[in-house]
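Box 3.1 A note on notation
Throughout this textbook, protein chains are presented in two layers. The first layer is the amino acid sequence; the second is a token string describing backbone geometry. Keep the layers aligned when reading.
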Amino acid sequence: MILFALWVLLSGMLDAFHLSLGVLSSAFIVWLSYDFFPSELDRCWRPLSILAIFIFISWLMMEIVKANVAMLRLVFRKDITAHIEPDIVYLQTRLRNPMALTIFANSITLTPGTISVTINGKGEFSVHTIDRESAENLPGEMERKIGRIFGE
């Protein structure tokens, strides 16, 4: 769908011939590149998982915006050193799928104020946080949303 939307956007042609050519080209590219994707993604092609992916991405974007605002508030405080409390937080997640763990670690790192430091296959994370507020929601909603994508 994304490739087809890009085709329509870049070609600007909305007649039947060009639209059908776009569908065929997009389907061919997906078929050709299917083997490049890890096998863990096979269970993500269910309709509920695809919906969960879109919900997660939109939710993550909002969380990134909120975390950026929180970091801006922190940076522009007069007494910034009194509020910065860097710490390493250790957490256990119920996720076991390697792809789910990777997405979880990357999502944590994408959110300003937190960085995934270590992770193992048992779902044990260490996360560097810049203040207590950044650590409060870990693992929380992010873990649940990623779990829905992978059926965990």
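The chain has a mean pLDDT of 84. The first helix runs from residue 2 to 11.
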